Amino acid sequence: MSIKDLSGLMKQAQEMQEKMQARMQEAQAEIANLRVTGEAGAGLVRVVMNGRCEVVDVQLDDALLREDKGIIEDLIAAASNDAVRRANEAQQEKMAAAAGGFGLPGGLDLGNLGDLFGKMKF
Questions:
Q1: Cα–Cα distance for residue pair 116/38, rounded to 1 Å
Q2: How many beta carbons lie within 10 A of that of residue 19, not counting itself?
Q3: What is the DSSP code (8-state) at residue 67?
Q4: 89-98 contacts at long range (C-beta below 8 A, 24 or more positions apart)
Q5: Which residues, other chains included, contact 118 with Cβ-Cβ below 8 Å and sequence gap of 6+?
Q6: Taking a C-beta distance cutoff of 8 angstroms, is the pair 1, 45 a contact?
C-alpha cells in the first residue's frame, strides 16, 4: 500500500467520522424531542416522558381517584416504568438507525477484529 493510498484511506475515515458524528447529533436532537406514553391500569394512568426520560405529563382517569392511595401510587409507578422502557427502546432504535449504513472504507473487512477489541480490558 502506497502513502497515497494510505492518505486516501485516512481521508475516507475522517469523512466517515464526520458524517457519523453529524448523524449522532441529529439522532440525539430527535431523541430530545421524542414523546412516549407509558400506561397502567388499562389506561387509567398515563405518564408521558420525553426522550431523556423526563416526565412531561401525568394523566389520571377520574374513576381512579376513588381508589386507595396505595393503588394509585402503584399505578403511577408502573406507568412511569412503562414509559422509561418505551423511551429506552426508542433511543436505541434512533441511535441504531443513525449508526447504520457505514461500511468500512474501500471495502476493508476486519473480520473478527471487532470481537477481539470487545474482549480486551484496558
A1: 39
A2: 12
A3: S
A4: 90/31, 90/34, 90/36, 90/51, 91/31, 91/34, 91/51, 94/27, 94/30, 94/31, 94/34, 94/51, 95/24, 95/27, 95/31, 97/27, 98/20, 98/23, 98/24, 98/26, 98/27
A5: none
A6: no
If one counts every other C-beta atom within 10 angstroms of the C-beta of residue 82, the result is: 19
Residue the block writes with cell 443513525: 98
Name residues whose C-beta falls within 8 Å of residue 20's C-beta, 6 or more positions apart in sequence: 98, 99, 102
Q: Which residues of 20-36 are buried (b: 16+ CB within 10 A; e: fewer)?
A: eeebeeebbebbeebeb
Nearest to residue 39, comparing CAs of 88, 81, 70? 81
| Cross-strand bridge partners of residue 49 | 36, 55
CA separation for the pair 98, 116 (Å, rounded): 24
Residue that wins the pLDDT comparison between 1 and 26: 26
pLDDT in tens, 35-55: 999 999 999 999 999 999 999
